[in-house]
Amino acid sequence: MNKHLNDKVIIITGASSGLGRELAIKLSRYPVKLLLHGRDAERLRQTVEQCHSSLSKIHVHVGDLKQSQHCATLINTAVEQFGKIDMLINNAGVSMWQNVETIDEQMINELMQINYFAPVHCTLNALAYLKKSQGQVVLISSIQGLIAVPNHSAYVASKHAATGFFNTLRLDVPEINVLQVFPGWMSGTHLRKNSLGSSHKKTAVVKPSPATSDAATVAKKIVAALGSSRQNLFIPAKLKWVSCLQALFPQLMYRILRHYVKKQ
């Protein structure tokens, strides 16, 4: 059990399914106050039903974080309901599966709005409250926030942008802890099924491999790291070497990545 979580007010974006839902379920086992965000009210209700609400207090907020005003409303709702904010978990995201030659401006904009601007706007709106509580902001990134992967150009770009912003936030605002989470391919989410691009329907299920983690396991490791001074969390841990390998042996890494994505 994580003793740092007692009586904390925690916001989770993208809590209606996948990793966000698993985080909500695991955190609800603590005496915490949760504000769960999602775009689908019915799926959020299903998330709440699976939570252990006898220990936690749970409030839901339905909204589309592509619109910056919804980011501000989300943060204001947390303060109105619970009086403070201790942790903001930026989990909401969308992926893609399409060659760079065929993507369009609309796809690029949507990926940037959800994967970059939404966590940035939510964090900026919550910053004063997080400073007051000496709290923590969490970015659920991806190993693709550090390396390039075929057929994911705009997704990779959005994750790299977010990584850069939150690395700088860590330097600019030392009063809060910034935790970035870099998972690899993950099962148990709708990220692949809902990815943007004409070919994603053919690859709705991630084929099992040694690099694949399930959402429940990833959520467990994230919860264990909350409230600590840790800055980066790689899941599985061996992924921390991937960016080093790409810097030292780029052609080898590109061959490995092309081979892996082709299998998917």
Describe this structure as you would to a colleague.
This protein is α/β, with parallel strands linked by helices and 264 residues long. Helix content is 44%, strand content 15%. It contains 8 helices and 9 strands. A 7-stranded parallel sheet has the order 3-2-1-4-5-6-9, with helices on both faces. A two-stranded parallel ribbon has the order 7-8. Strand 4, helix 4 (105-133) and strand 5 (136-140) form a beta-alpha-beta unit. Helix 1 packs across helix 6, helix 3 runs parallel beside helix 4 and helix 7 (242-248) packs across helix 8. Mean pLDDT is 89; it is low at 198-206.
What does this entry show, briefly?
By secondary structure, the chain is α/β, with parallel strands linked by helices.
Backbone shape = globular
Mean pLDDT: 89
The share of residues in extended strands comes to: 15-25%
Number of strands: 9
Major beta sheet, specifics? 7 strands, parallel
How many H/I helices?
A: 8
Helix content: 40-55%
What is the terminal separation in angstroms?
A: 36 Å
- This entry's quaternary arrangement is single chain
Biggest β-sheet: strands ordered side by side in the sheet: 3-2-1-4-5-6-9
Helix-strand sequence: EHEHEHEHEHEEEHEHH
Which stretches of 5+ consecutive residues score pLDDT under 50?
A: 198-206
Question: Helix/strand/pairing class, anyone?
Answer: alpha/beta
Radius of gyration: 18 Å
